[in-house]
Amino acid sequence: MTLDPLLAFQRQVLDGLLDEDALCVVARGLGLNRILAELARVCATPRALVFLLNASDQDEDDLQHYFMQMRSGETTDEASTVHIIKNETNATLRARVYRQGGLISVTSRILIVDLLNDVVPSELITGVIVHNASRVTAESIEAFVLRVIRQQNKQAFVKALSDAPETFTQGFAPMDKTLKVLGLRHVQLWPRFHVAVQNDLSRVETPVVELRQPQTRAMIDLQQAVLDCLSAMISELCSTTKLLDAETFNVESSLFRYFDSMVKRRLNPYWHRLSGRARGMVSDMTLLRRVAELITTYDSVSLLEYLDTLLLSAKSAPGALPGPAASWMGTDSANILYSVARARTFVRANEPLPESTQATLRTLGLPDNIVPVLEVPPKLEVLANILDEIGVLNHAAVAKGADSGPALIMASSARECRMIRSYLSSLHDYVELDIPQQYINDKHSGRHPKMMVNLLRGFFKWKAQATGIRGNSSQSQRPGSTATGSQNQQRQGAITGSQNQMRHAPSAKRRRVRGASVAAGVRGPRAQADVLEQESSDLANTIAANDSTDADSADDADEYLDSDDWTPNGFDEHFGLLPNAETIIVHSYASERN
Fold it and tell me: At what angle do helices 217-241 and 276-297 cross, to 10 degrees?
């Protein structure tokens, strides 16, 4: 399989890089890795020694894949490839690879050590290709490598590439700083609205239908709770540190992707002067932004498990000193966040459920005193409707004698692909529960997808395991039975108590905190964590009692496999290839190769 030729604008980008040393900034999605592969192919010759810096593992895999496709049908040339040097490569082998020449992808830390130790023949260096140039700063090792190479070999070229143009709009003169660090004078900009790009992309017009699915009320409440926590922390951080501008750093700016890097870049020169609370709030803002992203990415059960993990991690082990709890976990907004996340997954029954419902729940491996809610992500329901429409169109095309291809579903990550596959594989497989009338409404219908039920069972098993782990840690930290052990612990407790008294001021002399502060009204995560631990303890017995369910299911599966329906003649019916009209392919677009 050979590669398709470059588009006209991609050829222009490559020609511009070959003509002069410059920083090439390409819009995201215009095939930067493909351009890098062609540039690497030109440099991958034994007559030159070119280093590739700042390339990730995925970039190196894509580059090797491109080289393999370029050499298909041709005589394999060992020099026409990329040599990858990692920390497993010893100094002797690295020196031999440097002497052989070609294109070498090496980490900056290894290269700077070899340059300072004269392992790299600096007089043989032809040039350097800097990938992901937007990540290079004045304090980075890549900048140090470029300065050393410039001092030892003034004839070496430097060509930088980046597909993140938004990073060059943050701060004061970011483009000038990047050019100064790279030692370059020219910039090549290729936005999506460039005339050459528009001419190539408009040749084939594909009809695009954009569907917007509104979020559920619970998802809106979750996002609002996260935004309230972020707003309180940003306000307190701006008022206490006096280093952040409230007009620039606000809730609206926190929705952008590079908000965390903006805050850290602003506070980095004064990081050693910040208090522990301020540093913790910076990391908490990153965590809350992650939670806001997972509200639309994860399903309801996975989101609740993630939040409970944060809650358990904030609780100190039994017998240990209380650690620094997250400042947002004790606020009213955090209580709303946890209560809504739990309410969209399951609710506890106020009164005993019918015997048939309890038996069904125990059979499914769930506690018999809960009512599953299991809110399905709206995007999955929209996807199911779209696939139904595609199926109707494909069957109509087949009936007319036309040929129809498979349906391709692209997702942003491998986790979302697994969720989509699991949902589609059990799309028409539901679990019916006899729920009392007082629980029946728009959210509690008593009919749930099998995928969500399996996720809920896994969630309760995880909670039971978490209880066992904390129980073992508490037993290991109990006082010893000997008198010496108890005396040592009493002596250590007295020392710790005196240190805490010296460290903290008396409660009567502590300064008051304003109501706008996050610390105002913070009750700490202890009460919520205790409730979670008690629930896990209660559910552990239920899960242990229902462990035999999996064995029964396995026996049923074996019995089903041994039935008379599975014959060699019926193999194609159950395991044969599906027609293209009935095939669905789910893949992630994690890289440009996909």
Answer: 160
